[in-house]
Structure formats: structure tokens, C-alpha cells
Amino acid sequence: MPRERRRARMARRPASVTVVESRARILRRLDIVSAPLILLSVVSLAFSTEIDAASPWVEYLDHFETGLSVAFTAEYITRLCLGGRRYAFSFFGFVDFLAGLPGMLVLGGGHDLLVLRTLRVFRLVSLLKIGRYGGAAARLGRALHSVREEFALLAGVAATVLCLAAFGIRYFEHEAQPEHFSTFGECLWWAVVSLTTVGYGDIYPETAGGKVFASVVLLLSVGIIAAPAGLIAAALSTQRKTDDD
Predict the structure, then answer these.
(1) Model confidence over 109-148: pLDDT tens digits?
(2) 107: three-class secondary structure by DSSP
(3) Residue 106 near residue 63, CB atoms below 8 Å
(4) Can you say whether the dihedral through the CA atoms of 74, 77, 78, 83 is positive or negative?
(5) Strand, helix or coil at 113?
(6) How far is it, in rounded angstroms, from Cα 41 to Cα 114?
(7) pTM for the full model?
(8) How many CB atoms within 10 Å of residue 193?
């Protein structure tokens, strides 16, 4: 009786609802299957760097990676059939396309192992597909979207400070260190390394004016680097509260 009542309810439901639910079930199963394939793909790529080119394992690894590429291609085709153009031009659609590109060449008759070994690095983008799983990734996406204008403003400020820092350090250090601060590109490299607080130490100011200017740039960099982190933290906290409510 319960089974018959369930069948009767399914028969009364609109066909469009049934189709949507069927697609959702297929996509959930694809997520379950593709997650371990992503991990296996990363492991195989890492393992390929550890074995010698003359090792008999190379042939087995090539077959294994070819199978993974074909599996990613099958996943992409399935999602494309279910999602259509909206999926094809989406972020994850592009990621799935790159991950399945080596497999598409195999199915298309391209069996050049050298080409396939070169293109298999595209499967590393499949790591981005992990963002498809779980509510935390969706929450992070909503948080980033909510502060997109603030991020654009910060990006503009950072670009302006980088240019000013590059021109400024060239003014102070060009004559003292022409081998390091002669071109805008070299000065921009110093500005990027300084503003990101990396500080490789390969290029540094020697004049008094350059040191004072560099100190100002480093103080500004603390705020420029810390501001995006604060924005993301605040936006995530807001999204979390909204989801809980």
C-alpha cells in the first residue's frame, strides 16, 4: 500500500517537476563519483613526477590517466546535456571543459602520448570543481559577490599605490642602483614584493630618501593587504547569520 500511494503521488505531479528532480539526482550522483576521481587525478599527476621515464610504471600510468581524462569528458558531456548553454558558459562549465580536454582528444582519435601528457596538467583545474560541493563554498561565493564593489575599489587603490611606489623608488634609487632600478618593470617588481610583504631581499633601497620612501610604502601595504581579509571575514559572518536566520 505505501508503495502504491507513492506511485499515485508521483503520477499526480507535474512532468516538469519530475524532470527537474531527476536531473538533480543525476547531478548529485555525478558529484559523488567525480570527487574521488579528482583526488585520484591529483595523486596520479604527483606520482608521475616521482617515477623514471624508463620505468614500466609509465605505461600503466598513461593508461590510467587516459581513463581519468575520458571519465572527466563523460562527466562534462553529461552535465552539458543536462545544463545546456547556461552550464556551458558558466565558470564550472569552463573548468569541466578544461579537465576533460585530454579525454576529448583521446575520443577524437588523438593518441599522441606526448600531447596528452602535456595537456593532462589541465586536469589540475578539476581541483576548482571541489568548490561545487558543500554549502560553505556557496556561502563564500555569496560573500564575495556582496563585497564586489569594495573589492573593485581596493583593487584600484592597490594598482595606484603600486604605480606610485614603482615611480617613486625609481626617482630615489635610479642613480644609486641603475642595475636594479633603471626600468619601470624592475621598479614594479620591487613594489609588488614590498606591498605583498614578501620581501625577498634581492632588491632594496640604499639611499636615505629611498629608505624613507620604502618605509611609507611598507606601512601602506599593511592596510592594503589586511583590508580584503577583513572584508571577506565580515561578509562571511553576515552570510552565516543570514543562513542561520
Answers:
(1) 655 555 555 566 666 666 666 656 556 667 777 888 888 8
(2) helix
(3) no
(4) positive
(5) helix
(6) 18
(7) 0.52
(8) 16
Separation between Cα atoms, residue 235 and residue 241, nearest integer Å: 10
Can you tell me which residue has the cell 548529485? Answer: 28
Amino acid at 136: A
Q: Is 197 left (phi over 0), alpha (psi -120 to 50) or beta?
A: left
Surface-to-core class of residue 244, CB atoms within 10 Å of its CB (0-12 exposed, 13-18 middle, 19+ buried): exposed
Is-contact 96 73, C-beta < 8 A?
no
Cα 110 to Cα 43, 78, 114: the distances in Å are 24, 21, 11
Specify the residue for cell string 528532480: 21
Task: Give pairs for 74-77: CB < 8 Å, separation 24+.
Answer: 74/100, 74/103, 75/30, 75/33, 75/34, 75/100, 76/100
At which residue does the C-alpha cell 556557496 appear?
138
Give me 113's grid cell: 602520448
Contact 206/198 with Cβ under 8 angstroms? Answer: no
Q: What are the φ/ψ torsions at residue 42 (nearest 5 degrees)?
A: -65, -40
